[in-house]
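Subject: design request, 543 residues
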């Protein structure tokens, strides 16, 4: 932990907005530099204009590529586009609008010229597509919880959730071709002309999302219980949504901090002394945690509100894994409109407490690789009632079992904590303690280990037979996985399990390290042993 982690940001920590915005327009990325090419991760293209990774040319090229993709895919409905509160989000949305309008795409932006959470865009796409044949898609301009100097740009196809790698690879390849060609082939008109184009319209994301919440949550129970809720947008896109939710549904809800500041000067520093709007981090959430006793439930969201942080007066900030397990246990016992066959979805680096809860519920567990995109088909069809990942992202079905959003919804999961408390009379922290008394109390952690680019590539291509070890931390190995058991997709790494523990190793996409996720139901000392042996096993097969 850094010495200043959890402390208020100082002037020296703040990004120079003038330099950031100037660089967006002035810096021309070098397509021959891999760090300055278009690259889609699990949540779109991200980077900073200051290092040539997120600039005007990137967005023009990506948007043109999306236009060409949707044409080839026969997508003829409107494209819903929203932005978050990062400084680079508005100029990037403007660039995209210029390209979309020049191509004659029917694009809908926020009717209030405000900020739009990722789940509100997903909700809008699904709502439109439920009754139309001319299917809609969407763009969200956001780098999620990344620092203030970053920008992000992600595409959601008509399924409403994150695009799969088949789409993002195509878009990235085409965008890089356009960059290499000096943007020849990119259609574009001036912003003023674009805003007046017949193909450009507006959509009230806030109204449509807020008014539809009773279809997915028991808001009557929250209102009747009179719970005092504290909602902290962390300066993000949910800032206007929380006040609207309180007013529309008559909830005793206070917006803890309604300020929007593209420098995020009010934030407390994360573990590495960076400003990061990570609502699952106790350091980034330090201000709200300090006020936990003022509310029955307090919650936080990241900049695009696709993540949730749950703070209770009796337990502080909940570990995301703990909350996912608690939410799953509550929802599958309190949603009579859900199919009895609907499965539970989790990423393979999420806690095995979820496995034990799912088995107790008599449900089937679908374990998938990292990335919310893997939950999209099941949430859309209703076959998966809940999908969640260890990084505090999740979504679930409406009360009647139909889809609500196929992207992560931090507002939804935050409100669920209040519903859970209202209905059961216990906080999510208390509910989790009940689970540990039945199933054990696991220790979970993630650490990084150094690795060269060649070693990371080797890790991503492992096969189970490459691992010859038969035991891990004193227990027999029960499985060696390089494909997710839930859908057979490659995990881009390795997972090894025993009766009471597991580890997973995945290469970092941005640093010369690989990540080791590990968990033990036998205590902290056993967890440390698992981590040490995990590193030895992985190093032995990639060196």
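Subject: RE: design request

Done. Sequence follows.
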């Amino acid at each position: 932990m850094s010495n200043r982690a959890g402390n208020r940001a100082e002037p020296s920590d703040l990004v120079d907005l003038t330099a950031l915005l100037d660089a967006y327009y002035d810096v021309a990325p070098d397509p021959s530099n891999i760090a300055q090419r278009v690259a889609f991760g699990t949540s779109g293209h991200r980077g900073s204009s200051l290092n040539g990774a997120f600039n005007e040319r990137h967005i023009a090229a990506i948007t043109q590529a999306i236009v060409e993709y949707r044409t080839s895919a026969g997508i003829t409905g409107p494209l819903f586009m929203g932005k978050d509160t990062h400084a680079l989000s508005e100029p990037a949305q403007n660039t995209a609008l210029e390209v979309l309008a020049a191509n004659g795409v029917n694009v809908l932006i926020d009717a209030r010229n405000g900020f739009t959470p990722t789940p509100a865009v997903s909700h809008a796409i699904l709502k439109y597509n439920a009754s139309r044949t001319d299917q809609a898609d969407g763009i969200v301009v956001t780098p999620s919880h990344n620092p203030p100097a970053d920008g992000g740009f992600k595409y959601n196809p008509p399924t409403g959730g994150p695009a799969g790698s088949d789409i993002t690879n195509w878009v990235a390849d085409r965008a890089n071709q356009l960059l290499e060609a000096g943007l020849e082939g990119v259609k574009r008109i001036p912003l003023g002309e674009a805003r007046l184009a017949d193909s450009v319209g507006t959509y009230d994301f806030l109204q449509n999302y807020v008014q539809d919440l009773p279809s997915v949550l028991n808001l009557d129970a929250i209102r009747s219980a009179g719970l005092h809720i504290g909602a902290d947008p962390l300066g993000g896109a949910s800032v206007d949504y929380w006040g609207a939710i309180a007013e529309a549904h008559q909830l005793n809800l206070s917006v803890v901090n309604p300020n929007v500041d593209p420098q995020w000067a009010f934030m407390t520093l994360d573990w590495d002394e960076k400003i990061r709007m990570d609502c699952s981090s106790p350091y980034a959430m330090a201000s709200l945690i300090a006020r936990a006793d003022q509310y029955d439930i307090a919650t936080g969201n990241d900049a695009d509100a696709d993540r949730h942080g749950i703070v209770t007066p009796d337990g502080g900030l909940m570990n995301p894994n703990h909350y996912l397990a608690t939410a799953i246990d509550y929802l599958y016992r309190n949603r009579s409109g859900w199919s009895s066959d609907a499965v539970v979805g989790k990423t393979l680096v999420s806690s095995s407490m979820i496995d034990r809860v799912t088995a107790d519920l008599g449900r089937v567990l679908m374990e998938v690789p990292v990335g919310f995109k893997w939950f999209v088909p099941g949430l859309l069809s209703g076959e998966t009632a809940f999908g969640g990942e260890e990084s505090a992202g999740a979504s679930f079905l409406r009360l009647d079992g139909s889809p609500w959003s196929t992207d992560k919804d931090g507002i939804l999961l935050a409100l669920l904590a209040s519903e859970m408390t209202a209905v059961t009379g216990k906080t999510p922290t208390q509910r989790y303690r009940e689970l540990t008394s039945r199933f054990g109390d696991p220790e979970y952690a993630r650490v990084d280990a150094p690795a060269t680019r060649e070693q990371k590539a080797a890790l991503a291509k492992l096969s189970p037979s490459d691992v010859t070890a038969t035991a891990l931390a004193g227990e027999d190995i029960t499985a060696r996985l390089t494909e997710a058991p839930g859908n057979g997709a490659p995990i881009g790494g390795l997972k090894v399990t025993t009766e009471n523990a597991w580890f997973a190793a995945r290469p970092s996409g941005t640093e010369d390290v690989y990540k080791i996720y590990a968990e033990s139901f036998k205590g902290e000392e056993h967890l440390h042993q698992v981590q040490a042996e995990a590193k030895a096993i992985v190093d032995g097969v990639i060196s």
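The CA atoms of residues 90 and 310 lie 29 Å apart.
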